[in-house]
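U., I forgot to send this yesterday:
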Amino acid sequence: MSEEKDQLAAAVVNHMMEHDQFSQWLGIQVLEIREGFSKISMVIRPEMVNGFGIIHGGVTFSLADSAFAFACNNRNVLSVALDTSINFIKPVHVGDELTASAKEIHNGQSTGLYHITILNQHQHVVAEFKGLCYRTGKPLIKS
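Result:
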């Protein structure tokens, strides 16, 4: 049964990525999908740097937000963000590879809570993200 759920989760995320031009532009690669979980990565490009010479916080946020979206929608129930927050812990530079892992903390009928950890290629935590989603009850794909 778990394998079927994970197959559905992967199909939903594949559908989402096909239609998510922003995640594609970021260069996001999907590494692992399980029900209520996602792991994705991206490499930082020069156009993602701010005036201080480090990655713009919005890029790190966007990576975490995509991991959040893939984890909270992969049961094939359209879910949207209600509240999110991020803590930036270490600077990120051009050429760094970031990996975001989204873990489900709570799966309720109308809400879900997720914790996303963002690591660099040295396995250092560069940011922590928390996301609360609202579940609409509508499917994303026909299963």
